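Bumping my old thread because nobody answered last time. Still need a sequence for this structure:
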């Protein structure tokens, strides 16, 4: 719905906007000069905020007049909270049709009228200018209808405006109307009471494609919004999209020529919403075509049924619509059951409608409102996540009530020590897509841990939220598949495998590689925890690439703690690289200083865990034998200050000294072992001689 949001800023902020902007001049503030006190700049009017006059009540009545235009009648009550003042009020207008011939639309106000306390007054149409720095959220409008209004001390006045505007329409017959409330924020404080209503005329609830914001109700053929103490923002702007053909458009893949003829009769009549004329023409078509195919006849009867029902006919309702899952079927059957007092059938129909993917939130709300209040069940949305596929994240969203309204992605990450956030909102259109895909933009730096979650809100205001998840941002063009595996020991291992590489000479990553590495890593981490006394990281991200070029590019990004980058080739001993990288992550839990640990120590720790004999292994084991407390202090100190300083500080040796000492011990053990062997042999020789002599 981003298109419509942008359209509002250009279209409805002008023609359907009721924004009384005051440009304040205090009676005793003569020194301000005309330009500031009157809110003028040369011959043009500009917007100023006001901190003295409050809007205490706003009542806006919108009425559809056919399909092409909307009439607006709005009444405001203003109260002066300070000394006497004189206010220049302005009502903004967009560009009229005479100045937008190339665009084919009309953003102007027609038949604009103003009343003050019930008395009609003239309003002057003036050119607008860009808002000043003190204008807050003001936008630039090309024209203003202006008038002056004096306020006495604590005095209140009622201002009424009426006009009509042309609606915006598209080639698919959808029509857009609405009203902007956010600009009322320029008045002092909040608006005490607000009521906005839209009389739908002959537009029916099943013909509403989109209605925002949520929180409205159906009332005697109108949509109604009400607020108290409102501080209006963009989230309060009214936007209604309807389509009189909604739900009745034939299936393009299977419709016959005669079905299209039937539809065209119906569609042309909808231009005037004259259902009696439509019915007459459909009956004439039936007389001229007595041999219609069953499917074509059913479609004809359905459109005739719509006309007859709206003209007062009822008895045929179940015959035409029962068992169908079209939008009009649910609407007319619900009305029929409601009028007949068949509450059980009505409840069953509402429950059935909630399971249909094509149901729209406005229609679902209408169906529920026909039920008694105690029977209006309401369920929250349901969310199902899918593996990450940067740069878009996927979610499956549904709602048992069929009134899903909006899906949102919230995302945050650290960049250069600064917390960055993104929010992506996708409005729901029915029928629902299989998956909602929300795009991440701008891209975070490569190898950045990203925290995100999804939210879904329905027409009733229920919100469903997924738990916060942590993913690894990787360059999307490299082609990734993400898989998260929970560890039995602690936390998670998130694998990201480069699957879409199709370059020559690149070995494809085999299926199941991540599972093999995971099983190996589980056992290795458990052994490492026991041998080295290290806590396991809560989460490890593993990116495995097959492309050498991409691997080099990603390696330059310098993986932070918790991130492992590996390259797969058919000749690579990936298990060794995998275990070494896991061990690095264990030490990094004690601090970033471990990133510079020497190669001999890393190899020695690996050999110690794997119980392999080596000089490096004996060096690490020597440090471990000096006591658990000293070892843990060494781990923490090395994490803060670096490996070499910690080694000297805690053990009083350098790496070279330690290697020499352990080497001498190993040599000593060799001589000692050799001497012991000679001694055993010598001690056993006399016994052997005696046995020989006795023989």
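Sorry it took so long. Here it is:
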């Amino acid at each position: 719905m981003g298109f419509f949001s942008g359209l509002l800023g250009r279209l409805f902020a002008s023609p359907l906007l009721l924004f009384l902007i005051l440009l304040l001049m205090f009676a005793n503030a003569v020194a301000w000069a005309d330009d500031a006190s009157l809110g003028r700049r040369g011959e043009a009017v500009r917007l100023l905020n006001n901190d003295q006059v409050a809007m205490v009540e706003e009542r806006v009545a919108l009425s559809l007049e056919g399909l092409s235009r909307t009439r607006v009648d709005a009444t405001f009550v203003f109260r002066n909270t300070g000394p006497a003042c004189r206010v220049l009020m302005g009502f903004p207008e967009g560009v009229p049709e005479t100045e937008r011939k190339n665009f084919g639309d009309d953003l102007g106000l027609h038949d604009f009228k103003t009343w003050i306390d019930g008395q009609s007054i003239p309003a002057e149409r003036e050119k607008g200018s860009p808002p000043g720095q003190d204008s807050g959220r003001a936008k630039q409008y090309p024209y203003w209808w202006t008038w002056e209004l004096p306020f006495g001390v604590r005095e209140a006045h009622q201002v009424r405006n009426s006009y009509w505007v042309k609606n915006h329409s598209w080639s698919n017959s959808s029509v857009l109307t609405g009203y902007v409330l956010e600009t009322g924020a320029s008045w002092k404080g909040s608006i005490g009471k607000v009521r906005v209503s839209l009389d739908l005329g002959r537009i029916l609830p099943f013909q509403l494609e989109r209605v925002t914001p949520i929180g409205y109700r159906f009332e005697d053929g109108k949509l109604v919004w009400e607020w108290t103490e409102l501080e209006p923002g963009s989230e309060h702007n009214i936007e209604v999209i309807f389509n009189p053909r909604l739900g009745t458009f034939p299936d393009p893949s299977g419709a016959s020529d005669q079905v299209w003829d039937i539809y065209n009769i119906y569609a042309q009549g909808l231009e005037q919403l004259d259902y009696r004329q439509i019915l007459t023409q459909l009956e004439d078509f039936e007389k001229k075509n007595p041999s219609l195919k069953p499917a074509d006849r059913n479609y004809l009867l359905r459109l005739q049924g719509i006309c007859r029902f709206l003209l007062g006919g009822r008895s045929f309702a179940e015959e035409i619509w029962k068992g169908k899952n079209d939008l009009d079927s649910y609407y007319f059957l619900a009305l029929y059951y409601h009028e007949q007092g068949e509450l059980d059938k009505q409840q069953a129909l509402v429950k059935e409608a909630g399971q249909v993917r094509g149901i729209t939130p406005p229609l679902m709300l209408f169906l529920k409102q026909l039920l008694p209040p105690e029977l209006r069940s309401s369920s929250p949305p349901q969310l199902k996540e899918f593996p990450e596929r940067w740069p878009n994240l996927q979610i499956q969203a549904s709602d048992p009530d069929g009134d899903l309204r909006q899906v949102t992605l919230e995302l945050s990450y650290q960049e250069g020590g600064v917390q960055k956030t993104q929010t992506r909102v996708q409005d729901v259109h029915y029928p629902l897509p299989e998956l909602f895909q929300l795009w991440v933009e701008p891209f975070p730096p490569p190898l950045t841990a990203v925290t995100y979650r999804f939210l879904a809100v329905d027409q009733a205001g229920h919100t469903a939220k997924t738990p916060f998840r942590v993913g690894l941002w990787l360059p999307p063009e490299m082609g990734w598949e993400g898989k998260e595996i929970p560890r039995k020991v602690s936390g998670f291992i998130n694998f990201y495998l480069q699957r879409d590489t199709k370059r020559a000479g690149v070995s494809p990553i085999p299926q199941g590689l991540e599972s093999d590495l995971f099983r190996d890593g589980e056992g290795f981490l458990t052994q490492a925890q026991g041998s080295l006394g290290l806590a396991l990281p809560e989460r490890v991200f593993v990116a495995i690439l097959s492309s050498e070029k991409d691997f080099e590019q990603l390696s330059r990004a310098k993986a932070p703690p918790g991130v492992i980058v590996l390259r797969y080739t058919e000749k690579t001993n990936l298990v060794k690289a995998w275990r070494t990288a896991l061990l690095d992550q264990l030490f990094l839990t004690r601090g970033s200083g471990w990133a510079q640990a020497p190669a001999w120590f890393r190899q020695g720790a690996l050999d110690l865990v794997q119980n392999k004999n080596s000089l490096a292994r004996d060096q690490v084991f020597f440090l471990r034998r000096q006591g658990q407390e000293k070892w843990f202090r060494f781990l923490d100190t090395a994490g803060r200050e670096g490996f070499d300083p910690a080694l000297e500080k805690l053990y009083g040796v350098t790496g070279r000294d330690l290697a020499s000492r352990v080497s001498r011990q190993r040599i000593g053990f060799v001589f000692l072992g050799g001497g012991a062997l000679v001694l055993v042999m010598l001690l056993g020789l006399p016994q052997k001689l005696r046995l020989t002599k006795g023989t």
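Confidence is low (pLDDT under 50) at residues 1-42, 133-138, 670-674. Let me know if any region looks off to you.
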